[in-house]
Amino acid sequence: MTRVVVVGDLMTDAVARARYPLARASDTPAIVTMHGGGSGANISSWLAVEGAEVAFIGRRGADITGRNRDMELMGYGVDARLVMDPERPTGTCVVLITHKGERTMLSDPGANAALSPEDLPRDLFVQGGHLHLSGYTLINEGSREAGLAALKLAGRAGMTVSVDCSSSAPLERTGAEPFLEWTEDAKLLFANADQAKVLTGRDDPAAAAKVLTAWFPQVVVKLADEGALWYANGRGEPVRCPAETVDRVVDGTGAGDAFVAGFLPSWLDKKPPAEALAAGCRLAAKAISHLGARPRL
């Protein structure tokens, strides 16, 4: 089984679910819960519980929250290679969910913003492995050099590489051209429809995926409740997979991360794209059926 090395963000998610329409400049009753988060850490956790061998490289604060997040990852079976930051706290994301289920995220990267090339354990970058890089690492200026260094180390080792765009608004602030330039050696790109539009200017996800194959041999576009599609350079039509039906959507936080974790093992085993997409949609359905972005233990 191919070992997956994930470089990315570790966060604590403070999820606030409003019970009524937001009362601006006043109080709105809500249910607030705390969960482990961060796209890279989420993907690592889902991979581990699904039986993959996975190492996660990240940075945490020297606080109780960071210690708890570290122990959570080990509980999932992740080989957590976390550098402890003596000055910055563990990253935090406030996830605001309206009474209609719409999500808005307020993120403080904390220690994630200080991830450096020196934090990357060289023993993990070996031939036969796979690197998955969270786009947040590149989008954040403080950790960008670490992300670029990880890509170089993986390239020198002959590892396969996948990259996730992470989030449309910071991606747009960073700019499509730099992001595409930094990641052009990746074999596989994950994006959702909004992120694909930021990178290409195309509203149609299939058209955007086709454009993106000018940089990446394979592209996966996540389409939320419409499932996902895969497109390869030179292929006539994309392969599509519908989303799995769930009884009730509880929390969409981390569904895209779960999808990536479902897709990658099948893809690395060279299974047909339709099978890999279905595996991704299966885990995404699990993720939206409970609170929090991580698997239930």
Question: Can you walk through the features of this model?
Answer:
Strand 6 (91-97) and strand 7 (103-108) form a beta hairpin. Helix 1 (39-49) crosses helix 9, helix 7 (193-200) crosses helix 8 (205-212) and helix 9 runs antiparallel to helix 10 (273-287). This protein is α/β, with parallel strands linked by helices and 297 residues long. The strands form 2 sheets. A 9-stranded mixed β-sheet has the order 5-4-1-8-9-10-11-12-13, sandwiched between helices. Strands 3-2-6-7 form a 4-stranded mixed β-sheet. The chain is built from 10 helices and 13 strands. The chain has one domain (4-10, 39-89, 110-287): Ribokinase (UDP-N-acetylmuramoyl-L-alanine:D-glutamate ligase, 3-Layer(aba) Sandwich), CATH 3.40.1190.20. The mean pLDDT is 95.
Distinctive features:
UDP-N-acetylmuramoyl-L-alanine:D-glutamate ligase, 4-stranded mixed sheet, 297 residues, alpha/beta, PfkB_dom
What's the SSE blueprint?
Layout: E1 4-7, E2 11-18, E3 30-37, H1 39-49, E4 54-61, H2 64-76, E5 79-85, E6 91-97, E7 103-108, E8 130-134, H3 135-139, H4 141-157, E9 160-164, H5 168-174, H6 176-183, E10 188-192, H7 193-200, H8 205-212, E11 218-222, E12 228-232, E13 239-241, H9 255-268, H10 273-287
Parallel strand pairs: 1-4, 1-8, 2-6, 4-5, 8-9, 9-10, 10-11
Antiparallel strand pairs: 2-3, 6-7, 11-12, 12-13
Helix pairs in contact: 1-9, 5-7, 7-8, 9-10
Pfam families: PfkB (PF00294)
Organism: Streptosporangium pseudovulgare
Protein name: Ribokinase
